[in-house]
Amino acid sequence: MSKYLKEKYASLAPYVPGEQPRDMKYIKLNTNESPFPPSPLAIQYAREEAERLMLYPDPELTSIKGALADYYGVKRECVSATNGSDDALNFAFMAFCDESTPALFADITYGFYKVFARLNHIPYTELPLLEDFTLSVDDYIGRRGTVFIANPNAPTGIFLPLSEIERLVASDTSRVVIVDEAYVDFGGESAVRLTEKYSNLLVIGTFSKSRSLAGGRLGFAIGSEELISDIERLRNSTNPYNINRMTMAAGVGALADRAYFEDNCKKIISTRENTSAQLRKMGFTLTPSSANFIFASHKSIDAEQMYLTLKKNGILVRHFTQEIIKDYNRITVGNAEEMQILIDKIKEIWGDIL
Ligand code: PMP
User: Fold this and answer.
1) If DSSP codes are grouped into helix, strand and coil, which group holds residue 295?
2) Which of 41, 96, 205, 354 is packed most tightly, with the most Cβ within 10 A?
3) Which regions of 262-309 does DSSP assign to beta strands (E)?
């Protein structure tokens, strides 16, 4: 840290992304990426757009907003797009929280929420999940503050039914509820349709998981015209060229190729269920996941040791040190072959105690 960094940022604890070691070739099951390449149409559109990289991208994001609006059946004015959904989340923290409007989120959820709150000097309260890692909406009702819910949640994968989201949103329309749907395509149900009914609901999505574009950095927000105009105000005050030409084109291609997307989601879900069944047979305890990852613990295997041993064996999973979940590892659902290698490795290493 330099002596010039201002005090307001000196105590920041930046988000720590999943490790990306380069010392050997790993099976990467630690950052919830898709094992499948982007849709051929996404690649083709991005390639064509590369020829126009000397020009700034469209600051109004006309093509991607239009494609998202068509896909989700909402008005174009109800859509914004961002550089990854992390940017949309940051804008939501900036727009809808301040010293007197704290952020409310679960104690076990996406780790970036806390970082965004601190970055923007926003007070926040982490509300404990229930013992089975489910979220009780009643804990949020009657409390002041802007609510952030990852649905399905990370790293548990547990999906909160839409009826519960609606009960929360309807309980207090003077505050905003943000639903982060990064993993919704793997078995959840999107709250987008509720945004027409509730002007205090903002849904945030990403192309990083189900649409295989993590490297492109493309996220979006859908909500009432008013909420979206707030997000746009921040986007245009930060960087109106926030989405580069190739990514915008890739996003349009990915949305157009519905069959490829649906097929990949189906494959991930079926591989998740198959891997889960095998892990359960070996004595692992799993949360019911509606996401592209599995959250697993075993009474006879120390989770951190498991993570370290798998890493030595060329398989990366994610271990969190947070006390309540330190007995778990989060395992991204890769392709069927990768998951079979994982299962075989676990049997080979821990077979005698399973
Ligand atoms: N929300 C959740 C719950 C996530 O796990 C992630 C991925 N780390 C994100 C949002 C951000 O994803 P991206 O910025 O790649 O869209």
Assistant:
1) strand
2) 205
3) 284-286, 293-298
Cis preceding-peptide flag for 38 (omega within 30 of 0): no
- Which residue's CA is minimally distant from atom 8 of ligand 1? 31
> For ligand 1, is residue 86 a contact (CB within 6 Å)?
yes
What stretches of 104-180 show up as alpha helix (H) in DSSP?
A: 112-119, 162-171
Q: What domains can be seen in the chain, in order of their start residue?
A: 17-36+259-350 (3.90.1150.10), 40-256 (3.40.640.10)
Please report the sign of the dihedral spanned by the C-alpha atoms of residue 152, residue 153, residue 157, residue 160: negative
- Give the phi and the psi of residue 226 in degrees, each rounded to 5: -65, -50
Helix, strand or coil for residue 346?
Answer: helix
pLDDT digits (tens, 9 = 90+) for 190-230: 999 999 999 999 999 999 999 999 999 999 999 999 999 99
pTM for this entry: 0.97
The response to whether residue 110 sits with its C-beta less than 6 Å from ligand 1 reads yes
For ligand 1, atom 6, which residue shows the shortest CA distance? 182
Query: What's the rounded Cα separation, in Å, for the pair 248 and 266?
Result: 25
CA–CA gap between residue 170 and residue 41 (Å, rounded): 40
Residue 324 is given by DSSP the state G
Confidence of residue 353 (pLDDT cuts 50, 70, 90): confident
**Helix/strand/coil for 265:** helix
For residue 155 and ligand 1, the question of a CB distance below 6 A is answered with no
Ligand 1 within 6 A of CB of 84:
yes
Residue 291 φ then ψ, to 5°: -120, -175
Residue 168 CA to residue 274 CA, distance in Å, equals 34
Query: Does the N-terminal peptide bond of residue 155 adopt cis geometry, omega within 30 degrees of 0?
Result: yes
Is residue 314 within 8 A of residue 26, CB to CB? The reply is: yes
Cα(86) to ligand 1 centroid in Å equals 6
Query: 239: how many CB neighbours lie within 10 A of its CB?
Result: 13
Residue 4: Cβ within 10 Å count: 5
CA of 351 to the centre of ligand 1 (A): 34
